Amino acid sequence: YGKNTIKFLRLHREGKKHFVKEVEVCTHLRLTSAHEYLDGNNSCVIPTDTIKNIVLVLAKKNGIPTLEQFAIDICKHFITTFCQVAYVKTYIQEVPWQRLHENGVPHIHSFIYVPDGIRFCEVEQCRNGPLVVSAGIKDLKLMKTTQSGFEGFYKNEHTTLPERHDRVLCGELFCKWSYGECRDFDFDCTWNKIRECILEAFAGPPDCGEYSPSYQKTVNSIQMCILSKVSQVQIIETILNNIYYNVVDMKNLCLTNDKEVLVPVEAPYGSCACTLGRKKFLEA
């Protein structure tokens, strides 16, 4: 049991310059007994309101240096403070505020909401067990207008989809990765590097791009790029929800539409998912 959607803004001031972190926290506990479920005995139950207050107090006292470190702080607090807690899991996602720039100059206290993917993390801690840290990005919408196709797929009497060698590839990406042994490393730097890998693998070189024969191959390319360049990552779960665009037929308007005007297909939409990891981690 636990407390969901604990939302708050943490404001940090360094002189005139301000820093913000707005987050949503979900924290859940498992106790060493189940008396509250079986007998209605609540003597070991930590109220969810108390859970919420602890999260807010930790934010006040420790700040939020990184999402991952804040989640670690929450888990460690419950494990070390309450002997009846056997397991704690904390999920945190960040509201994408970015510092506002005016003529290239960073503003000291103004920010803009930029929906270019939502950062999140998840930390689990068992009593006398290892600390498990995962992180990720979700709701990241990506598009390329060429260098994508879908050909040579299986066909039968129910197939109506034509083959395409040049199409718009667009999707909403969810990517979650697990770290190995939680050593002391820079979570912010690592997250930013992984995000760069995602964009690089999706788009290809800036002057020419890279051909994608399918959404599935694009997902695999993203995962392979991350594993090859970020040694801290051990396993990656990726889901790409496809967003389709159809070319508008303008023949009745006496116009030729060479993929210049397209409309999005709201539903249904496709989706592909893959989990990829290093062999030693998967075997463990």
Automatic annotation (TrEMBL):
Record: residues binding urate: T48, D49, F150, R167, Q216, N242
Pathway: Purine metabolism; urate degradation; (S)-allantoin from urate: step 1/3
Keyword Oxidoreductase applies: yes
GO biological process terms held by the UniProt record: purine nucleobase catabolic process; urate catabolic process
Binding positions (O2): T48, N242
Entry's Gene Ontology cellular component terms: peroxisome
Family: Belongs to the uricase family.
Protein name: Uricase
Organism this protein belongs to: Pedionomus torquatus
Underlying gene: Uox
